[in-house]
């Protein structure tokens, strides 16, 4: 199984490849910036290995890593959190739930109103590609590591 450092190194080392491909495909500047931020942010902070109580990804959250404890309880390691489709969705929805709790607390305690509106579709798609691509690379590396380990075990 690849370590968290191997995952992060691989994901960040391939980032220039993806952004260069985006430039050649004519992706707009705004979308490239959002993609790069989402990709780097997901590599650092939204790894599928947040399903482990003690992982590089969870340690990067510092004292806020306690926020991911319910996630580690809800998702077993390499289960739904490592799904190509549902893995990133579980983490984004979980963060959205936490943000909604903070918003509700601010609203109830201080009466603060935080308005929001739907962002344009281009940056939203770029954001989703950024977090889904890091998830795909992570899961592929995990599966390659497992296959390599099994092959070494047989020889
Ligand atoms: Zn993993």
Largest sheet properties: none
Number of helices: 6
Would you tell me the structural class of the helices and strands? mainly alpha
What ligand molecules are bound, each kind once?
zinc ion
Helix content: 55-70%
Describe it:
Helix content is 70%, strand content 0%. The protein has one domain (4-154). The model has no long low-confidence stretch (mean pLDDT 92). The chain is flat. It is mostly helical and 155 residues long. It has six helices and no strands. It has helices spanning 4-24, 29-45, 56-60, 69-74, 86-110, 121-154. The structure holds zinc ion (ZN). Residues 48-49, 82, 138, 142 line the site of zinc ion.
Features:
mainly alpha; 6 helices; 70% helix
């Amino acid at each position: 199984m690849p370590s968290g450092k191997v995952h992060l190194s691989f994901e960040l080392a391939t980032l220039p490849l993806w952004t260069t491909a985006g430039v050649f495909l004519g992706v707009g500047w705004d979308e490239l910036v959002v993609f790069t931020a989402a990709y780097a942010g997901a590599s650092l902070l939204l790894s599928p290995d947040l399903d482990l109580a003690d992982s590089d990804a969870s340690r990067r959250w510092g004292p806020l890593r306690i926020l991911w404890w319910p996630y580690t309880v809800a998702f077993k390691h390499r289960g739904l959190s490592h799904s190509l489709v549902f893995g990133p969705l579980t983490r984004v929805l979980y963060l959205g739930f936490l943000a909604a709790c903070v918003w509700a607390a601010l609203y109830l305690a201080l009466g603060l109103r935080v308005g929001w509106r739907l962002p344009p579709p281009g940056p939203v798609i770029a954001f989703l590609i950024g977090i889904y691509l890091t998830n795909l690379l992570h899961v592929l590396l995990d599966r390659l590591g497992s296959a390599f380990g099994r092959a070494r075990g047989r020889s």
